[in-house]
Specification:
Bound molecules: adenosine-5'-diphosphate, magnesium ion
Number of strands: 8
Radius of gyration: 25 Å
Largest sheet: 5 strands, parallel
Number of helices: 21
Shape: globular
Order of helices and strands: HHEEHEHHEHEHHEHEHEHHHHHHHHHHH
Structural class: alpha/beta
Length: 460
């Protein structure tokens, strides 16, 4: 029984990663453990009163959804750790022989297609301010009347300003509005990379056929982070044909990018002009008023408690931060307050946390990490992580690997011996890689541009 409960619960936790913040999950939800099933309720043990209250106040809904999906149960109850022994005795738990046939079965949703979009990224949760109202209106319009106006819709703007949120909101809204009848395809940078790898693996012809089958049935095609196709000729080629087919059939195409079409290097001219034929609209950093609204909204969504006097202070001090970073700071503040035994974030906590600005930057991921560099290089060259750090010596792996070593050396301030360990190579290989890229940057314009692009994407 306990195994069954734990196994199903771990499935719920996996699902919750999409709908609950990492802090919420680690600090609260992962602290409870299922103990028993009583009637239609899943009984959990919770370590203390504060966790119990926070869960009940802020995380009931996602937990209920999760246990419905994986346990087929309608509700749950929390008992305190101190009450556990009594509960076990009263319910004769250890001697209960559960007949496996009577256990609720896990529900799978394979038979029925499910809305694949992130439930947190909706129009409702999207705060509209002066910096994003046009794009918001356009996004709503294409979700409700795809293919009519604004086709294609090209959204661009810096990291963490809501592009992915908007694409998912379009997906969610179109899904509900058209009652799941439209085929909505969302592609991210990784999907593109994998598709490209597959085209190569399956041979161009078969790979291409499958690529077409996947994308050309779409009524709405959402493409996130399109800048990553810049140096992928094969994908651009296919994307161009897909684009034309869909466009001519009156289907809606929505594209997000971190820069406008004209600044995406190595983008075929014909694609660039296709993008320009619809609405190209930017999304900017939020102004003060919008930051206030965003902060309030996030607090509400997470079920956090903040003293109201803190909100304008944050909106003022976080001027340079993008929205993802603002969320990071709010999580950190709430965590900090709780660690100090406070239920609400007050000015004292806020000032203390904001004064440690280096730590703050670290906590919101501004500091460049080894992972960030590895991810950026993988994305740029459509490689999987183990291909990048593995031992294969094909040209398509070797050069990205050398670039990666160069970037780590330049950006991380760690010795080459440490870097060579990441790649399981010896020290001299790392020196050779670094020097080769240093030389190439001087003589090869393409290489210079690739490295500059990567440096920029790492800082973002
Ligand atoms: P991008 O794709 O532009 O890098 P995301 O869409 O991933 O950015 O947004 C980063 C975070 O900021 C997400 O958690 C998202 O929900 C939040 N966010 C961005 N814009 C808004 C907004 N206008 N209102 C509420 N949340 C927002
Ligand atoms: Mg994004």
């Amino acid at each position: 029984m306990q195994n069954f409960l734990d196994r199903q619960w771990s499935e719920v936790l996996l699902d919750l990663e999409d709908s609950v913040s990492a802090v919420g999950l680690d600090l609260w939800i992962k602290k409870i453990r299922p103990l028993n099933i009583e009637d239609d309720k899943l009984i959990f043990v919770v370590p203390n009163v504060m966790t119990r209250d926070t869960i009940l106040r802020a995380y009931s809904q996602p937990i209920i959804e999760g246990i419905y999906k994986h346990f087929k149960l309608e509700n749950y109850a929390l008992i305190l750790e101190g009450e556990k022994e009594n509960y076990i005795k009263e319910h004769n738990l250890l001697s209960t022989k559960q007949n496996p046939e009577n256990l609720p079965r896990a529900v799978t949703n394979e038979e029925q297609p499910e809305n694949p979009f992130n439930p947190r990224y909706t129009f409702n949760n999207f705060v509209i301010g002066t910096t994003n109202q046009i794009i918001y209106a356009a996004a709503r319009s294409v979700a409700e009347d795809p293919g009519i106006r604004f086709n294609p819709l090209f959204i661009y703007g810096g990291v963490g300003l809501g592009k992915t949120h908007l694409l998912h909101a379009i997906g969610n809204h179109a899904w509900n509005f058209h009652k799941g009848k439209l085929k909505i395809v969302y592609v991210s940078c990784e999907t593109f990379a994998n598709d490209l790898i597959e085209i190569f693996q399956k041979g161009k012809e078969r790979g291409t056929v499958e690529f077409r089958r996947k994308y050309r049935k779409a009524d709405i095609l959402l493409v996130d982070d399109i800048q990553f196709i810049s140096n992928k000729k094969a994908v651009q080629e296919e994307f161009f044909h897909t684009f034309n087919d869909l466009y001519q059939a009156g289907k809606q195409i929505i594209v997000a990018s971190d820069r406008p079409p004209k600044e995406i290097s190595e983008l075929e001219e014909r694609l660039r002009s296709r993008f320009g034929s619809g609405l190209v609209q930017d999304i900017q950093k939020p102004d003060f008023e919008t930051r206030m609204m965003i902060i309030n909204k996030k607090i509400e969504l997470e079920g956090y408690q903040f003293d109201s006097s803190v909100i304008p202070i944050l909106a003022e001090k976080l001027e340079k931060f993008n929205i993802r970073e603002i969320e990071g700071v709010l999580n950190k503040l709430y965590l900090f307050a709780n660690l100090h035994g406070k239920m609400s974030v007050d000015e004292e906590i806020t000032n203390e946390v904001l004064s440690k600005s280096h730590e703050l930057e670290l906590s919101v991921g501004r500091v460049i990490s080894q992972d960030k560099i590895l991810d950026a290089v993988c994305c740029k060259f459509s490689l999987k992580r183990d291909e990048l750090i593995g031992r294969k010596r094909n040209k398509e792996f070797v050069e990205p690997r050398q670039i990666c070593i160069y970037l780590m050396w330049k950006k991380l301030n760690i010795p080459l011996t440490a870097i060579s360990k990441v790649f399981n190579r010896d020290h001299t290989t790392a020196i050779h890689a670094r020097d080769k890229i240093i030389d190439l940057i001087k003589t090869d314009e393409d290489m210079k541009k690739i490295v500059e692009d990567l440096e920029e994407s790492i800082i973002n």
